[in-house]
Design goal:
Length: about 80
């Protein structure tokens, strides 16, 4: 699935990934390929991404919004 992490200043990450874990306001949650569409608020915390090469990348955010639609994840991060 495609992931784009965008901050007010720049695009932080763009690429194909296997999975993502996010800090939701009601608890952490993850998404895999073909996840149901959703929009959710995010709290301060860490986003953990597993790339197609099975490498792990972490991004710290101060909150934001995530949208999953058609195997594309967009994170608007603060």
């Amino acid at each position: 699935m495609q992931l784009d992490i965008i901050s007010p200043e720049k695009k932080v990450y763009s690429g194909q990934i296997k999975s993502i874990q996010l800090p939701g306001i009601k608890g952490s949650f993850g998404m895999l390929n073909n996840h149901a569409p959703l929009i959710s608020s995010l709290k301060k915390g860490s986003i953990k991404v597993t790339t197609m090469d099975n490498l792990s990348e972490n991004f710290t955010i101060n909150g934001g919004i995530v949208e999953m639609l058609g195997n594309k994840v967009t994170v608007l991060a603060e």
